[in-house]
Write the structure tokens for this entry.
Amino acid sequence: MQTHSQRLRQKIGLMAPRMRQAAGKVWNHPNFREVFPEFMFTIHSIIRATHPSMKAAAACAQARGANDPVAAAIAGYFFEHADEEKGHDEWALADLQVLGMPAEEVHRRIPSTAVASLVGSQYYWMNHFHPVAYLSYIAVSEAPPSIEYLEEKVRTSGLPRDAFRTWFFHAQLDHGHVREFDELVDSLPLNEWHHSILGMNVFYSAEMQARAFEEVAEEFESSQAKMAHRS
């Protein structure tokens, strides 16, 4: 019989080819050096919302906890891990500055609608349905490339290693986070209704993350085509 975390990971596995394909359009782009700063802008746009959205999920779960054992169990986890996520957006901001994008420009630029849909939907589910959905968002998000792959990208791209610090940090941290996360999920008194919510948000979050990544490559190629046409 599958554990709760195995059921969740199985659903993520169904979306893994879609997410790999979308991420590959950036990581394997022939003009990776030029695309990477735009990719990091998108990553920063997502990460900057992690701490506040997780705290919001914790508050929603805490508010329901008196009459909801699942909500009561996840509230503490969300509060604890929200503190761990605090400041990670500053890592991405520092990487962007290494890549030549000042903080003022980063904060002035408008993130993509895919990013807004990815993050914004989490607030809907936690506030207007059930904060257990946020577990799917965490599970989908914590899947960085391996340290070996990142080292290879540094070598082949010629970009400064300091421009990849956010990725290296997460590659080191997320393995431990995944173990803790799975232990939490397995400890929860989940029923089929909860699993339906988790599955729904796995599929949606994975799709919106994939779209956000694809937009990076598509917008770069569109801008290059416009420049070629003008010249």
Remarks:
- The mean pLDDT is 94.
